[in-house]
Design a protein that fits this description.
Elements (H helix, E strand, L loop, with lengths): L13 H33 L1 H10 L6 E3 L8 E2 L12 E3 L31 E5 L2 E5 L6 E6 L4 E7 L2 E6 L3 E6 L6 E5 L5 E7 L12 E6 L3 E8 L2 E9 L4 E6 L6 E5 L3 E6 L5 E7 L5 E6 L6 E6 L3 E6 L8 E4 L10 E6 L5 E6 L3 E6 L5 E6 L9 E6 L5 E6 L3 E5 L2 H6 L7
Parallel strand pairs: 1-18, 2-26
Antiparallel strand pairs: 3-29, 4-5, 5-6, 7-8, 8-9, 9-10, 11-12, 12-13, 13-14, 15-16, 16-17, 17-18, 19-20, 20-21, 21-22, 23-24, 24-25, 25-26, 27-28, 28-29
Organism: Anaeramoeba flamelloides
InterPro entries: DUF2415, WD40/YVTN_repeat-like_dom_sf, WD40_repeat_dom_sf
Protein name: Wd repeat protein
């Protein structure tokens, strides 16, 4: 008898019964395979922390986010011709650039002296090997300290001023205490940026200020100022030299950029474990900043000639990509990005001659400040807002420029301008 026609004593087709059995076995096997697949994916998720730790040293594809974006279409705000504005002030004070790519050398912090108004806060900048302060009211310019090294970065917060050098030295001075001065050699190559902050977890500015020191030895050092000494409390190693780093205002995210096409986000509350690596740039980056009004938005300035703005809650899509106004490779790099404390603006400084102001309410409206062409080709050494974001300050190798913002128009209309 043919097997397919075989029947048992109850009249049941045995061939059909075996076929149904085989089909049930195949279904069970499919279910088991799906279960094993879910288990493997779950295992990768459970081991993600270890992968992130390794990524800081060698890289992990699981934490990389590649951004494919086009340049944001911007529209220029109606503004006055700045070179003809009588309200633009010029201080005939030169500044010095020790490293052609490091251009964060101007600071106008809130004055620690209660007798000084915010609109007249002193300006701090390097000239030769000294740090100077410029009194905006009296125009008196005086040397605070001769650092005895070429100054690559300057940071000021409250009564403390800090400078880094091209040979691994860091100097910090208390502006209120004449004898308080610390100088330390880290042996770290070029000090690319130093930030004084109290936003990191466990920071207490009133007793122990914190420094974030980024250097060419592929390391970021978290340094405490204790009893006139600098104590390294944490070293974070990276695959490439780090040019700039900053922390979000709420202290939850640490951001670092350097000689790589990626931006690196870490969790300072959890041993600086890697969160994400954003691959969005086409070249190295030299500037970062966080929006103090949101704590979630940050900006990056890149050598390729673009400023990129992201929101930590949606890293797959950048909020904006703003291209440089210049085409020449040596001039188009974005050297500085700074958010304003008020009025919703982002300052984007180019290598030479031009600084842009972007409206952070829509990331579309932009205004370009063209430095006076009669002054020739001006290398920008730094740019910043004043304490209340009522003025923009731009330092060059020849002079320092002060431009008032039209604060009233910023408050009343969708597109504010300069006075």
């Amino acid at each position: 008898m043919n097997v397919n026609e075989e029947e048992n004593d109850n009249g049941v087709d045995r061939g059909q019964e075996r076929e149904r059995f085989r089909e049930r076995e195949r279904e069970r096997e499919r279910i088991r395979r799906r279960g094993r697949g879910r288990g493997r994916r779950g295992g990768r998720g459970r081991g993600r922390g270890r992968g992130r730790e390794r990524a800081l040293e060698g890289g992990s594809e699981q934490t990389r986010i590649k951004i494919n974006l086009r340049s944001t279409k911007t529209r220029s705000c109606k503004s006055f011709a700045l070179e003809n504005s009588n309200l633009k002030s010029k201080f005939n004070q030169k500044t010095t650039i020790a490293h052609r790519q490091l251009r964060d050398l101007l600071s106008c912090p809130k004055p620690f002296q209660s007798t000084i108004e915010s609109s007249s806060s002193p300006l701090y900048f390097p000239f030769n090997e000294s740090i100077y302060s410029l009194d905006q009211r009296t125009l008196d310019c005086k040397s605070i300290k001769n650092c005895e090294f070429g100054i690559t970065t300057v940071s000021v917060m409250k009564n403390l001023i800090c400078a880094g050098s091209a040979d691994g030295n860091v100097m910090i001075k208390d502006l209120q205490r004449e004898n308080f001065l610390i100088k330390k050699a880290f042996g770290a190559g070029i000090i690319n940026s130093v930030t004084i902050t109290n936003d990191l977890p466990l920071s207490d500015y009133s007793t122990h200020p914190t420094l974030i020191v980024s250097s060419n030895d592929k390391m970021v050092r978290i340094v405490k100022v204790r009893n006139a000494r600098l104590s390294v409390v944490k070293k974070i190693r990276f695959p490439k030299p780090i040019n700039h780093s900053s922390v979000s205002p709420n202290g939850n995210i640490f951001l670092a950029v350097g000689d790589t096409k990626e931006a690196i986000l870490c969790d300072p509350r959890n041993g600086y474990k890697l969160i994400s690596r954003i691959k969005a740039m086409k070249d190295s980056s030299f500037a970062t900043d966080w929006n103090p009004l949101t704590s979630t938005q940050f900006a990056i300035g890149s050598q390729e000639g673009a400023a990129l703005i992201f929101d930590i809650r949606k890293l797959n899509n950048a909020l904006a990509k703003i291209k440089s106004t210049q085409n020449a490779k040596k001039e188009r790099a974005i050297r500085n990005v700074k958010f304003s404390s008020n009025h919703g603006l982002l300052l984007i400084a180019e290598h030479r001659n031009r600084v842009n102001l972007l409206d952070t309410r829509n990331y579309r409206d932009i205004q370009t400040i063209q430095l006076d062409p009669n002054d020739g080709d001006l290398n920008i050494s730094g740019a910043c807002f004043g304490p209340n974001s009522e003025f923009v300050y731009i330092s060059t190798t020849q002079k320092i420029i002060k431009i008032p913002l039209d604060v009233r128009k910023r408050r009343l209309f969708s597109c504010g301008s300069f006075k």
